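Field: sequence (string)
Field: structure_tokens (string)

Example rows 1 and 2, in order.
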Amino acid sequence: MSFSQLKPAEFRLALILAAVVGTRMLGLFLVLPVFMLLVPGMPGYSPVLAGLALGIYGLTQAVLQQPFGWLSDRWGRRRVILLGLALFTAGSGVAATSETMMSLVVGRALQGCGAVAGVTLAFAADHTHPERQSTVMALIGMGIGAAFLISIMVSVPVASAIGLKGLFWVTGALGVIGMLLVINTPGGRPPPGDVVQEQSVPSGIGPLCVSVFLLHALMTCFFVVIPGLLLARHALELPQHWKIYVPTMLVSALLVFPLLRLIAARQREKESIAWAFAALSIPFALFSLQLPMFALVSAAMLYFLAFNVLEAMMPSMVSRLTRHGGRGRNMGVFTTFQFLGAFAGGVGGGWLLQSAGPEATMVYAALVCMAWAWVSRLLPRT
């Protein structure tokens, strides 16, 4: 995987799209580390409703991914991305002015209506040679990873200074920045002759859809439970949570690309999905125990490393399994499951937290990881 192999136009497009995706995902990620600790005072609060508010954007994202992908195959990628970012910005404004949990749920749902993740990936694939698509996808994945890392670094201090409402105003501003970037993006229409082709979804995408569903369900569940555990077990107040997140994310960011190069060189992507989910089960199991701080940091580091490997690897696998015609639709299928997972993780994590407690929730998450690691090893190679 070498960025020097990209043509200048491909590299420029990849950078712009990475920035677009990164600013939008930063707007979503900013609230994750602090949300469950900042909403208990809001009228109508309950852990279940808070989990719903945290994950509801995933449901509206999932519902609209395929319609947006279908529309982008006919209307053009750039127009659809602009529409989605406008909806995301409007939802941020609704969330910022919310006075009750239910109105906050509505704002988060409207944020999710900006369902352009699949369209953006299709946009990148349209204008990249097939042999270089994995490199472009990795660069866009770096934008998502950078957004995740930046959100972990700045979310706590920014939330401490301006509160949850202020965070939502920041997310709205990021949506506007994303729109300005898209306006200056070259291209935007699918390749000629491919616009109206209808193709079935390749069978190999199915396991990847399940994998991304589980990955994002577990990620949302992680942030439903972990902030409260840090406070309850280690008396780690919100302004100190960066001491856990930032070092672990930085180390994982340094390790993820050497791992991706090794996986690609050995052509072991399918097996790597199983091993990554097996690795994810370890930190979840450890989080259910009374860990000293150094063990907690090590577990978090393993979690973020496995997460980032899967997040960067799977979109390029989907791209290689599909053709140009209908790519927006097929990417939409993949990202539909991604955001359904975020919704399921928020609602399910909130319900388990309320009914079974944080330790049991982490045990269930570990069992899910191990089960899918075992099943995915048994699936035929595609």
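Row 2 begins here:
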Amino acid sequence: MISRAGEWFLRSGIQEPNGGVARYYRTDLERNQAVSTEITGYAASTFVYLHSVTQDSRYLERAAAAARFLTRLAWDPATRTMPFETDPAAFTYFFDCGIIVRGLLAAWRATGEQEFFDVAVEVGRAMAGDFASAACEFHPILALPGKRPVERDRLRWSRMPGCYQLKSAMAWWDLFEATGDAPFREWYDRVLESSLRSAGSFLPGHPDRQKVMDRLHAFCYFLEGLLPRAEDGEIAGVLRSGIDTVAQWLGEIAPEFARSDVYAQLLRLRLYADWTGVTPLDLASACHEAESLAGFQAAHGGYYFGRTPEGWLPYVNPVSTAFACQALELWQTRSDAYRHLLI
């Protein structure tokens, strides 16, 4: 399955010649959505992971291409801005910037190219300055070019600050490890503290059960963001209870609407929690999640985003594919993956 997914990344055209990666492929329209900097950041991490598993040099070349798109075409050093999309550059997202930093750091570790590291540091610092709010939180979206906060919407998790931002803030922890600069750790700790306070009210968070499934995906981001501190007793407890919460909601809603990335994120969390000593692996639950996840793979190797009783939603998603192939590879090999390789 990882070979088929990898070939989809290499051959489908989801990555453009300039290195940028499209948000998803529309199966009904037979075309890609526009290139996204966030998805390109995820793709850089994905290619590095695929190279670590296969040692196929093509993946390292594609990781470098994705990283160069981000450093040379997307990043504006004059305004210190990483836009959501480059054409037009209308918004910048806090969450996206963190994913991009982690993708650049992954490419830097794998290739040694200093350019990737330097821009990752600059994006990380820009995140702290541009998105900070007077309420001691970080705005989710800024409008460009003025970097003005976008109006919030309590029923759309991506339009609000929240615990899911901890996955993005994990980039600051990674930068702290790479540079030793204390502010990076302080910024991560700031988001960690606010996330721990708000996580209990994040679910269900919406009257529409399909929207609750979407929020499960975001809640898994929160749990993933806890992993740098998983050995802390309090954090370990939150991680254990969070895994149980996601599993319960997923089991209830999946017959109506299921997202492949939620299955993948939950399976990865179970494996990492086992490896870090947080909680023993629930083999029966993990096996069910792996079998359910494998069923989302399309004939060409990519993974469908979601499924309802009426059938597949018409989106083959690079992030869904990346999460799925990593989760299933880790499940099949049961090999402890270095945390920095988490996509």
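free_text_note (row 2): The radius of gyration is 19 Å.
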